[in-house]
Amino acid sequence: MTAPFKERGLAALENVIDPELGVDIVNLGLIYNVELDDQGVCLVTMTLTIAGCPLTDYLDQAIKDELSGFDEVTRVDINLVWEPAWSMDKMSREARLELGIH
């Protein structure tokens, strides 16, 4: 049986590495939701570590490249939100260890 799209989408987004931190955007806690509607539109709800992040365009394109690889995805839209605000508490245990944050 095929895993739900959200699970597969999140797994694919683990390939998108924040070049400044060297950790993927899922484990950094930047991705809040990934959903696919009946028309094949994938909506990614996410935040950034800071407003005005210089990597916004890079991350947008990398996210679209990863999710466009699924046959059922016809378009990828990114919903950038600031609430809830990102904090280090959103990072996975693995990301914290990788960055030396205990």
What can you tell me about this protein's structure?
The chain has a single domain, classed as 2-Layer Sandwich (GMP Synthetase, Chain A, domain 3). It has helices spanning 5-13, 56-67, 93-99; strands at residues 17-18, 23-24, 31-36, 41-46, 75-80. The strands form two sheets. A three-stranded mixed β-sheet has the order 3-4-5. Strands 1-2 form a two-stranded antiparallel ribbon. The protein is of the alpha+beta class. A hairpin with a 4-residue loop joins strand 3 (31-36) and strand 4 (41-46). 27% of the residues lie in helices and 22% in strands. This is MIP18 family-like domain-containing protein. It comes from Secundilactobacillus similis DSM 23365 = JCM 2765. Residues 10-77 form the MIP18 family-like domain. It holds the Pfam family FeS_assembly_P.
Short description:
This protein has 102 residues and is of the alpha+beta class. The protein is built from three helices and five strands.
Q: So what's the overall shape? A: globular
The CATH architecture can be named as: 2-Layer Sandwich
Arrangement of strands in the largest sheet: 3-4-5
Structural class: alpha+beta
Give, in order, the helices and strands.
Answer: HEEEEHEH
Domain count: the total is 1
The level 1 CATH classification is Alpha Beta
Our measurement of the CA-to-CA distance between the termini, rounded to an integer number of angstroms, reads 38 Å
Domain MIP18 family-like: 10-77
Protein name: MIP18 family-like domain-containing protein
InterPro entries: Fe-S_Maturation_MIP18 (IPR052339), FSCA_dom_sf (IPR034904), MIP18-like (IPR002744)
